[in-house]
Amino acid sequence: MRSKLLILPFIVAISFSPFGLQPIAGELTLSPQTKSEDPESLGAWRLVRSSAPDGVESAAILHTAEFERSNSRLAGLMFRCVGRDIESIIVVVEPFPPRAHPQIVLRTEGQKEANFVGTIIPTGAGIRLPDDATRLLAGRWHTESELEIRVNDGDATFDGAILLSGLPKALQTLSSECVQK
Q1: pLDDT of residue 181
Q2: pLDDT under 70: residue ranges of the chain
Q3: In three state form, how does the secondary structure of the chain look?
Q4: What's the pLDDT at 5?
Q5: Which structural domain range is residue 128 located in?
Q6: Cβ atoms 86, 175 nearer than 8 A
């Protein structure tokens, strides 16, 4: 468990800074990762506020992949504000080519499954999921306990798991951040 606490700030730093956003002084706070049964808790989701070079503030919630059950290429899952809307991004460690369109399979513990084609964000460090995937994750699936992710980029396939505990409250918190922008 100690190693997870040490790599969480590193994963957040490498997964968020490639998106062109810099942490706002005093706003990037990381508490020890805990698994809370309290439905009002954000669980292991982390709210990150940032500021772009032009001064525009943004917010995102992040969750790292389950270390023992995930391929090392998968860093985690992020939901971020885009204007007043929310988009979902699979955060990866190894950048993708800009024109790649990886096939994504999302599956819950309850064996619900959905297939999507992702697009690569400009830095290559993330796979933007289509709006339908974001609506599914933020809607019908937001109370599931776990999400399995499989990414097929043509040359290789990798997968992993993200615990969804705390997602309803985290999305509610993020939504209020998006409205304030």
Answers
A1: 62
A2: 1-41, 181
A3: CHHHHHHHHHHHHHHHHHHCCEECCCCCCCCCCCCCCCCCCCCCCEEEEEECCCCCEEEEEEEECCHHHCCCCEEEEEEEEECCEEEEEEEECCCCCCCCCCEEEEEECCCCEEEEECEECCCCCEEECCHHHHHHHHCCCCCCCEEEEEEECCCCEEEEEEECCCHHHHHHHHHHHHHHC
A4: 37
A5: 2-180
A6: yes
pTM of the model: 0.78
CB atoms within 10 A of CB 87: 18
Other beta carbons within 10 Å of 30: 13
Backbone angles phi, psi at 18, to 5 degrees: -65, -10
What pLDDT digit, counting tens, does each position of 17-39 carry? 444 444 433 344 343 333 444 44
pLDDT at 26: 35
Q: What is the CATH number of the domain that holds 141?
A: 2.60.40
- Total domains, the chain: 1
